[in-house]
Amino acid sequence: MKPNLKITRRVTEMPPSGIRAFFDLVMGMEDVISLGVGEPDFDTPWRIRETGIYSIEQGCTSYTSNKGLLELRVAIADFLRQRHGLRYDPEEEILVTVGVSEALDLAVRALLDRGDRVLVPQPCFVSYAPMVSLAGGEPIIVETDERHGFRLSPSLLRARAARSARGLILNYPCNPTGVSYVKAELEALARLFRGTGLVVLSDEIYDELTYEGEHVAFPSLPGMRERTIYLNGFSKSFAMTGWRIGYAAGPRDVIAAMTKIHQYSIMSAPTTGQFAACEALRRGRSDVLEMKREYARRRGLVHARLNAMGLSCARPEGAFYIFPSIRSTGLDSMTFSRRLLEEEKVAVVPGTAFGRCGEGYIRISYASSAENLREAMDRIGRFTERVRGGT
Amino acid sequence: MTEEIVEILRRDARTTPEEIAAMLGRSAADVARAIRKLERDGVILRYRAVINEEALAAAAGRVRALIEVRTTPQKNVGFDRIAERIYRFPEVKSCSLLSGGYDLLLVVEGRDLQQIGNFVAEKLAPMENVQGTVTHFLLKKYKEDGDILVRRPRDRRLAVTP
To answer: Which of A189, A203, B47, B75 is 20 to 30 A from B83, alpha carbon to alpha carbon?
Structure first.
């Protein structure tokens, strides 16, 4: 008898990532300038890499505690206290994970029963809705639009939140829009949540890459700590994507439940990465600030160039993405991106990869050298002119 | 703003005032004015390319040496006069006064070992107030003024990621 390799409906019904098809297209081409990359172009700062190497030399190659090295959890607790005024017990309220992705996966699996609804504002990171679905929950898409600066507001959420959603996935600074929120905006959201049972899964992985004002951590708002699962990690701010180290901080019962799943499925996050992450928190701050300054300059450059060529966009407040409108070209996102790739060898990501409401936009990552960005902007300018000229 | 402009130009001298203005959120006119002032004040001396001499050496065949020089300081002028006598030679690419076991550190460039040897033997060592020299020929340069000279690998990231 043949083995039964039938794939579950859960998986077969899951739409493929909108980025995947595009990725295949790009891989077949040479000399492409890619502005489609969702990770820093910097290598991990040397002091952090060297610490990882040293830990291997010292033979630190075994599992760590399920929750992660205590040393790292203490460093995370210190960071959260010093930077955001948050108090988390490193013994029971912090869990080190394989990137924020695992932390989010654990959170939805720990919190959602079949059919539980989770509000997912879009455009957003590609895996939020599929993760909720895989955990048995029902993602409720909340579309934001350019008219409101792609910003989430109480008026946008009120009606839906009242319909007894269990949770909300919040992400700021936002991939792909670069939107972040000031304290007053977050307080307005918090006021709305206070009257509900909503749990907030706050993905703040880009917190250190905030260019306007200071990042306000969601659980630092009055009354929000007990309803927030705070998610962060080392990938973006420390340019450590490949090390796969993230963490979750939250109420102890939820962290305990997440740890339970984590210990069965993962055991512990990569050990070398955890040692490196300790060094990142201890001495990596100046490196972060240096990279941030560089991103901020590129942001100014790209923002000015895009607007000058009629691809209007707001100045991103954080992360390293900009989300210009391509409506003026008359092309849809996918066609624009495909033609730009084929005709000018510049890769961007069609806005639709981040939700239906991303139609009419593209995501440009400015995690690329100034020379690359300059050349890419020249090419995009040439392309849009040609398209508008009708050739 | 001045400091940031200098930093940006130090990294890439070809960055235009317009681009710098966009990067810093200032007007191009303000940036251009600030750059002119930097030039006038002698903060920016000139704009030049950073060359990986190592990569060029095969074609140009130049040799470099670091030379330690012990000197006798002179009344009232200290090391300045002897330093000037030395740094005026075009072979001397850089010249610094250091604390420690010797006084001046020179970077000297020549066509070959012989030529540098001659410079030391005929010009430098016999000079009044020069007590002694130690010449180190430069074999390989790994990093220069913040730039790692080993060819950088291409971008290793996947071309498109979420």
So the answer is: B47
